[in-house]
Amino acid sequence: MPLRVVVAGASGVVGRALLPQLRERGHHVTALARRADRLEELPADEVVAADLLEPDALRIQLRRCAPDVVIDESSAFGTADPQEALRRTAKLRERGGKNLLDAAVAAGARRFIAQGMTAAYRAHGHDVLDEESPLWVDAPGTWGDLVRAVASMEEELFTRSGIEGVSLRYGALYGPDTQYAPGGDVHARVVGSELPLVGDGVGLTSFTHVDDAAGVILELLEGGDPGAYNVVDNEPAESCEWLPAYARMAGAPAPVSLTLDQAKSQLDWLTVHQLTEQRGATNFRLRETLGWKPTWPSWREGFAALFGLWPA
């Protein structure tokens, strides 16, 4: 049955993949974007300039749209300065997300789908983590601020009466227009030999292609229980595995190797953590409860497609 769907953060990488698929399925789509200069680009039934940090205006807009489902894909990860990106995204998760949730409830929406992240899990041994694993709410610095904002938003989402709350915990998002695409931040760092192998390179990353992120949203518009879902591929990868493979496919130099002490003196804390300690996540809940299968089951094929090395 066609639904009225509002997508916040519609100009982001997941939003751009999602909007045309929603319309192909016959849903009425309202795209929210903060910047008015991006509105004409968006394939939606209507586009609205809206700031998630302005609750009164947001409530008016959602009441007018009368949505069945509200989707929050907002972030500031496109911001050039990494620390500022973390700070702004934490603010969007903590304040903006709750403002949007308040407006969705007031407008009578039945379901709210938020964006989480598997990188927020507390690293523990060599485990691949599921949705019951604790979030790292006492993590240091601006990263900790972001994890606490995500945890606070999820708690609000799962306990709010009058609406069904779903949090999609993405892995590292890759695909067109992401940091891993040519011209993106990760691509630039790898090409410039600025992203090294550190120590044994045992930090695990779970990857999520933007097509799979969008596809799961389509599945959960009406179906599936409320709660958290890890949206990741089938193959968590250690940095010693995915980073050299990515460099080869990108035509970049092989990554240099640093000891842990060298890395700590040359790199930011979060990069070192991701390369050496971070844990991956399992998509078992999605597969078992929805019968979901990722379009890109492994980052290997996904990276290859990103660089034109995989058949279309």
Automatic annotation (TrEMBL):
GO terms for molecular function: aldehyde dehydrogenase (NAD+) activity. It holds the Pfam family Epimerase. One of its GO terms (cellular component) is cytoplasm. InterPro entries: Epimerase_deHydtase (IPR001509), NAD(P)-bd_dom_sf (IPR036291), NAD(P)-dependent_oxidoreduct (IPR051783). It comes from the Bacteria. SUPFAM superfamilies: NAD(P)-binding Rossmann-fold domains. Residues 5-231 form the NAD-dependent epimerase/dehydratase domain. PANTHER family: NAD(P)-BINDING DOMAIN-CONTAINING PROTEIN-RELATED, PROTEIN YEEZ. This is Nucleoside-diphosphate-sugar epimerase.
